[in-house]
Task: inverse folding
């Protein structure tokens, strides 16, 4: 059988593609791409003429068989998405799963990934972190999700659409508190790259005051919850005991 290569492509700056990625993309029989027109431009830039076939969230499950039969016939296939690492808030999961289940070798070609780029430059604890992908688009769902994450001690990473970034920061401030440290990574690796780190209330005000900060692609890195220290901790414990006791009252 052939090999399925899972190949990371740039998240903006075309220099971020690896030498290995370029070689593999040129050598495989077929490239499965999220958006063939988008990827055609990337390949053209690098003079790669390998045929492209669509593999996006709407056809991935059905089309998986098509790629699988090519792999089983001994051909090598590369999987790419529009930007960054496939399967990271991008299609590819079903194909990789099907390939592995069929005993096809799956080889990752690591490279650009917006969440890792943001985390690596945010200056927030990076020894443990949680990637939350996109929060629910609607306010109620977003609030519910944030409530569940409020006491998460690990650094949190979110992807967000530019037209929702302000709403998202407002909800983060309301649920996590004004003082929680956060970093907004915008247009990473591109001309207008910004990495702004401020407590949530100030970051929200900064984005609110400057419409340019609501354009382009963004990642939010938010510091994890820190257990209160000293008197605050005692207050918290006392409050919890009181809440329990009150709950027991008729
Ligand atoms: N697979 C991609 C990766 O490896 O990062 C992510 C794909 S997801 C559909 C697109 C989201 O990733 C954007 O909405 C944004 O949150 C984030 N993103 C992608 N490129 C970015 C960039 N250059 N700067 C900041 N965020 C970016």
Result:
């Amino acid at each position: 059988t052939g090999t399925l290569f899972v190949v990371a492509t740039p998240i903006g700056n075309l220099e971020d593609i690896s030498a290995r990625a370029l070689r593999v993309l040129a050598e495989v029989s077929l490239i499965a791409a999220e958006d063939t027109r988008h990827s055609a431009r990337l390949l053209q830039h690098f003079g790669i003429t390998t045929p492209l076939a669509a593999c996006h969230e709407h056809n991935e499950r059905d089309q998986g068989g098509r790629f699988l039969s090519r792999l089983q016939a001994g051909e090598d296939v590369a999987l790419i998405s529009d930007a960054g690492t496939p399967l990271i808030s991008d299609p590819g999961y079903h194909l990789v799963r099907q390939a592995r289940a069929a005993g096809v070798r799956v080889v990752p070609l690591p490279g650009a990934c917006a969440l890792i780029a943001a985390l690596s430059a945010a200056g927030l604890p990076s020894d443990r972190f949680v990637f939350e992908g996109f929060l629910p688009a609607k306010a109620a769902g977003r609030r519910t999700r944030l409530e569940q994450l409020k006491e998460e001690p690990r650094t949190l990473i979110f992807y967000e659409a530019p037209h929702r970034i302000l709403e998202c920061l407002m909800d983060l401030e309301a649920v996590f508190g004004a003082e929680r440290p956060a970093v907004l990574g915008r247009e990473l690796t591109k001309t207008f790259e910004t990495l702004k780190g401020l407590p949530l209330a100030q970051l929200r005000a900064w984005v609110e005051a400057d419409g340019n900060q609501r354009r382009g692609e963004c990642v939010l890195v938010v510091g994890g919850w820190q257990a209160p220290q000293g008197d605050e901790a005692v207050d918290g414990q006392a409050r919890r005991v009181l809440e329990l006791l009150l709950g027991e009252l008729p």
In short: Residues 11-12, 81, 83-85, 88-90, 113-115, 159-161, 185-190, 217-219 surround S-adenosylmethionine (CB under 6 Å). DSSP finds nine helices and ten strands in the chain. The longest strand covers residues 129-134. The first helix runs from residue 19 to 27.
